Amino acid sequence: MSSTSRAIVAASVGVVEAMKDQMGICRWNYIIRSAQQSTKNNLRSLSQAKNLSSSTSAVVSSKVRDQEKMKKSEESLRTVMYLSCWGPN
């Protein structure tokens, strides 16, 4: 590589770096990366919330089923008590 081509390459690199500083390309790159990271974190939070809500709904539905079983067993006990007290002798 000749000394003139080295000088041209060095000058080109210097011009590009100066333009990046003046135009704020580095700052835009930071803003874009920051927005991507924020979006990724929000999606991760949303995914965790969905998983939590599905597990919560499973717990709630099991509680509802348990309450229904309890009501049925209470009704059966009430029927037995009624028949034992007032049923045929």
Concise summary:
This protein is mainly alpha-helical and 89 residues long.
Key terms:
Wound-responsive family protein, 89 residues, mainly alpha, rod-shaped, 2 helices, DUF3774_wound-induced
Task: Explain what you see.
It comes from Carya illinoinensis. Pfam families: DUF3774. InterPro entries: DUF3774_wound-induced. This is Wound-responsive family protein. By secondary structure, the chain is mostly helical. The longest helix is centred in the middle third of the chain and has 62 residues, at 25-86. The protein has helices at residues 3-23, 25-86. It starts with a helix and ends with a helix. The protein contains two helices and no strands.
Could you list the spans in which at least 5 consecutive residues all have pLDDT below 50? none
Which class of secondary structure composition applies to the elements? mainly alpha
DSSP strand count: 0
Tally of separate helices = 2
Would you list the SSEs in sequence order as H and E?
A: HH
Terminal CA distance: 117 Å
- Rg of Cα set: 37 Å
| Averaged pLDDT | 77
What percentage of the residues does DSSP assign to strands (E)?
under 5%
Task: List the SSEs and their pairings.
Layout (H helix, E strand, L loop, with lengths): L2 H21 L1 H62 L3
